[in-house]
């Protein structure tokens, strides 16, 4: 071999090495089969995204202590959203999104709800759009950068520890890990029978996905060859049903290799804002001390407790526009929350409204699952490896302003469960003041109450502190410090 041949060989080897490291985050390796073509929008496409749990996961994706996503799996969900939108839907808009009802799948001895399924599909939901009314009469259509995630309970017996809803939401039913009464199959058979072409996306762990694929295949007589076992969270399975009724199984592999670090937001940088501005809330503080001005500390009041109430991320591009989710702008806030709150608060656990709570619609809004508070604080829990639970026993929308939210107040501030704890709570803004005021009036009926929470404010934090004997202080002097008005309308791209 002459010198020129050796040099050429070394040069080619170097080029190939560099090229191997320059592929996109979901590019298959050279020996892998090509990615199938995007699904045909003229077909009815049932698309199954496999979320992860303790039983079926990729190494490093699920926190064994909290059963929640790790930074790595959050990264995977962000990258998978782009792959799903571009490679599976071919850039088309989704027709329906369905996620596991988290309280139907409790994990570890601490019974942590399965929040992996809704978080796995959240970024994808925000890459889509939906047109909804933006006035109370159901008119003035507005295109929002978001899509509802259906995760509500079917009518019938509820999981243990879940408050009965004011009414069930059949149009926003999610997936039940236990498939009680065949609810999951009934949901999908209903979609098939309605025969509306489009893209229907389901996010659930392998146990649920495997069962659904097998049962739909059998009930509809498709005679498809289904995956025999769990392979990887990178796999997406689609049953594509042609107008003729014939069905085929299409399997996609995203080949994702996400980093193990917390996601870094792309440009533009977020704009900071001070607290208690004219665009948010004027400062207030209330203190009630037992034995002063007739105040009495209620029996069973917690001690040495701090609760930080935050509102969900941006959700209403127009006053009456509401899909139960937050919008693309809100994803910037939710993903930045660990950075925004660093060195401001130090909670020991995170709580939120159960995303399976259904909003039956009305006043111009559609029936939807109320997923946005839980998905707003989820990234904070992930980044800080914190236990994350849902206040599912609180009937949030059974006590509405101006009625005091006594159930929420008792849940968080009485009974000793949260004594000696510091908690971050993602809640609905109109129900934060009634929760706090229920606490204040339990000490002193004629106490000066906390003000309402402005509809335009997504940034303020309310801090409730109970001291060593149960005296209470409430103020709103802290904030996340993220300027809502400067957030991009579309979600960050990964």
The level of helicity is 10-25%
Number of domains: 2
Low-confidence runs: 1-28
Structural class: alpha/beta
Taking the sheet with the most strands, its summary is: 7 strands, mixed
Coarse morphology = globular
Average pLDDT number:
93
CATH fourth-tier homologous superfamily of the largest domain: Phosphoglycerate mutase-like
The CATH C-level name of the largest domain is Alpha Beta
User: What is the helix/strand order?
Assistant: HEHEEEHEEHEHEEEEHEEEHEHEHEE
What radius of gyration results from the CA coordinates? Answer: 24 Å
Instruction: Specify the number of helices.
Output: 9
- Can you count the beta strands? 18
Distance between the termini: 47 Å
User: What would you say the CATH architecture of the largest domain is?
Assistant: 3-Layer(aba) Sandwich
Strand order of the largest sheet: 10-18-17-11-16-12-15
According to CATH, what is the topology of the largest domain?
Rossmann fold
Topology:
Layout: H1 3-20, E1 44-51, H2 71-88, E2 96-99, E3 106-107, E4 112-113, H3 116-126, E5 130-133, E6 141-144, H4 183-194, E7 198-205, H5 206-220, E8 235-241, E9 247-253, E10 285-288, E11 305-311, H6 328-340, E12 349-352, E13 358-359, E14 368-369, H7 372-383, E15 388-390, H8 406-413, E16 422-427, H9 432-443, E17 460-466, E18 472-479
Parallel strand pairs: 1-7, 2-7, 11-16, 12-15, 12-16
Antiparallel strand pairs: 1-8, 3-4, 5-6, 8-9, 10-18, 11-17, 13-14, 17-18
